[in-house]
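Ops channel
N.P.: pipeline sanity check, posting one input/output pair.
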């Protein structure tokens, strides 16, 4: 979903699909790096079981998602009727508005949940507190930068 929103191809649907294919290949490379790290670096690292599981789980999830995106994108590139149907569905104004509203709601909820979590995490772990705080500051910075950029572009 996020890939669809970010890679629009400048309004050219076929170009968007080609960009998605490259994004899927990039994601697959990230997943493969995770597998390489899991098999070559993690066994002798002394990491906790949780951290070792993270490598395997994240690499598996990213790789699987990338493969699904790659197969679907390749299918759409090679089947014009399916591509036409998908383009009509993806450019539907109602669905686009729903996706934008859902993204806004998710962003607001995540931000305020992080703010509430700061109060819980502070006495437990300063590293977790700093990570949450940095994430919230980054979110604010990206919001301001995107707002400035979009106000000039649109």
């Amino acid at each position: 979903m996020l890939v669809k929103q970010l890679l629009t191809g400048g309004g050219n649907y076929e170009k968007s699909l080609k960009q998605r294919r490259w994004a899927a290949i990039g994601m697959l490379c990230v997943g493969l790096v995770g597998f390489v790290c899991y098999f070559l670096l993690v066994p002798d690292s002394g990491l906790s079981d949780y951290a070792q599981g993270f490598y395997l789980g994240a690499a598996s999830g990213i790789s699987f998602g990338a493969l699904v995106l790659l197969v679907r994108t390749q299918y759409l590139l090679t089947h014009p009727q399916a591509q036409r149907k998908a383009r009509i569905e993806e450019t539907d104004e109602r669905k686009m508005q729903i996706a934008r509203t859902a993204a806004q709601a998710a962003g607001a909820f995540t931000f305020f949940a992080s703010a509430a979590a700061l109060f819980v995490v502070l006495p437990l772990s300063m590293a977790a507190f700093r990570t949450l705080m940095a994430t919230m500051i980054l979110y604010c910075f990206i919001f301001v930068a995107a707002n400035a950029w979009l106000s000039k572009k649109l």
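N.P.: looks fine end to end. The CA atoms of residues 55 and 139 lie 26 Å apart.
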